[in-house]
Amino acid sequence: MKHQKTCPLSTTDQLLVFLFLIVQFLSLLVQAEVHYYDFVVREKNYTRLCETKSILVVNDSFPGPEIRVHKGDTVYVNVHNQGDYAFTIHWHGIKQPRNPWSDGPSYITQCPIPPGTNFTYEVLLSIEEGTVWWHAHSDWTRATVHGAFVILPAIGTTFPFPQPDEDEVLVIASWYTGDIKELIDESIQNGTDLPHSDAYTLNGQPGDFCACSNGTAYRRVVDYGKTYLLRIVNGNMNAEHFFAVAEHSLTVVGLDGAYIKPINTAYIVISPGQTMDVLLVANQSLGQYYMAIRQYSSENIAVTRFDHANVTAILEYRGDYTYETFPVFPSTLPMYLDKAAALNFTYQLRSLATPEYPVNVPLDITTRMYITASMNVLPCDHAGCEITENIASSLNNVSWVDTKPTTNVLEAYYRNISGAYESNFPDQPPLFYNFTADSIADYYDYTAQGTKVKVLNYNESVEIVFQGTNVMDGSVNHPMHLHGYSFYVVGYGFGNFDNETDPKGYNLVDPPKVTTFGVPKRGWLAIRFKATNPGVWFWHCHFERHLTWGMDTAFIVKNGGTPETSIREPPTYMPPCIIPLNSRVHSYGEFIEEKIE
């Protein structure tokens, strides 16, 4: 990335920007609205890939219901658990100012919602604008429990691009044959590899090229000449994806609930956890065109065990014309291993950086962290283990393990409960070596488990450099997600990070402001943010396999000096910590009856 210099604003310009922001803030206070939703979560039968099975869904829909509100609104979501096991909901991409109690990750900010009970989340919107999403955050329940969260411009304002005629939510998800919970439990018990998806879906359907799926693809009818805003959510579990629409150009205008400089492109690449806002003009000949996704694999070229499904939905023009046997397939959709295509797209991401949507990159850094992201192994010595070593993953050679099921990190921190976590997550890896070498000694394969968090003072300016490693020849892209914050991606590159030369190429002018971004395979990612949201905030790789294996930890951001800069008090009711997350028993009623008594 080229180093760019900024031109200081004049005093008059600074005053105008300040006044504009004050007006915007006051406008939000006056016009913000309150919304109420009910999520009923239960099992329902679905048939995909020639198999009918029961899956956990919200309001009997897959994907789940869309939430649609305006910037600055408040949303209350009452979640009723009518399923067989406990879970939580996370509001991905939403900052939740001072309100970690409703952020959602299991055993980080709350304990799971037991079956037969309910819990109401208070979702506080602040600066987010565009498309974000919500999903379960317990075990692998987010495979089927997820949906879009659309945040329209504040009332009285509009988009920073021409008003689209309509919008359309497109949700990418993973599909597994068999019972995913049983598959996960069995894999963890045996110490074997975690499941790989059998197909992907677009708005719940795998499309015309998957088994028993011809004719079931999701369809969007469009009118010639209209502009459509595609709100794309990558809710799948473990893969990045290319997306393209046959014979149509795309203009990307938003990423992770923030606007970016428009990118005109024939395709996008999107990581799990990311959301993108994409304009499409329906300006082609009347007909049917495939919207298609294909996995982008950054694994070793010798690794072929990944989902090769070409998943499709159909863009169908309204009108009188002769239908072809199959719609046109996008010739611009890159192939599975096309690293150049992925990089060419990612290099173009820049914040909008206008007076209305300013950039405020921290410059005077007070906390610097250098964090390795690695694949590892742990001894597999528990009963039922079929092998001698478990697959694991780590950050700075610490493989996260959840707190004991009687508490969570937020509760332990807020109530000063000892023994739930350690506050000594390291700022640097324990050993330095050639992290990206073709061959790395077996000695570095091993990691250690821990519940270690990083404590930050309020208002610290933080820079983290994530360093991908090739331990076990396991280097891949790692989409890192930070709860409670957006962060600026000031730089990324390949090889080992050089703290003398690489910062000279940082983009401090218009770096993308995101909540999820990939650490490149055999490379590094530099991010910055200011710690102004007190609470406990989870951060992790958004490949569910890597999260399960331990590539996660949490920040504790201390209170500031005023009530307005301190964690809000907890709600009167939080789900009780009574049920182990990894146990799918059918005697939850007994637990609940005991608790009530």
UniProtKB/TrEMBL annotation:
Family annotation (SUPFAM superfamilies): Cupredoxins
MF term (GO), any: hydroquinone:oxygen oxidoreductase activity
Cited Pfam families: Cu-oxidase, Cu-oxidase_2, Cu-oxidase_3
Domain Plastocyanin-like: 41-153, 167-319, 429-559
UniProt remark on cofactor binding: Binds 4 Cu cations per monomer.
Membrane recorded as keyword: no
Biological processes, Gene Ontology terms: lignin catabolic process
EC number per UniProt: 1.10.3.2
Catalysed reaction equations from the record: 4 hydroquinone + O2 = 4 benzosemiquinone + 2 H2O
Cofactor: Cu cation
GO cellular component, one term: apoplast
Family to which the UniProt record says this protein belongs: Belongs to the multicopper oxidase family.
Full protein name: Laccase
Species the sequence originates in: Rosa chinensis (China rose)
